[in-house]
Amino acid sequence: MPKVKQGHGEKKSRKKELAALALITERTIGEAAGKAGIGEATLWRWMQEDGFQELWREMKRQAVGRAISKIQQSATMAVETLEDVMGNRKAPAMARVMAAKTVLDTALKAVEIEDLTARLEALERSANDEPKSGRASS
């Protein structure tokens, strides 16, 4: 986590961490200030400081990283659910068809992404291998 300038020591640094976290979890600046135990004007002032902005950005990155991890964990369960619906002869036909369509669409997109990635990597290698001195000048 980025270092926060300490004007009044460790207590102020901790308050800034709480404020940055509250900005992520609360709906309004006022609610964030209240949760952090500071005045709204103080929070507005801190939000203008480079050190606080860096701390806030880092906390947002961490929050998004945690959310992405949860999504990735849920993806396995989602695939298992689709497989269960597809294989369940007692499930409505429409549900089975939609599950199968979702699996096929996702598989096709994955193949397309792999192909595009391979083509992009080949183009990048080609561009990096191209002699730099052979270019025409204007």
TrEMBL record:
This is Homeodomain phBC6A51-type domain-containing protein. It comes from the Bacteria.
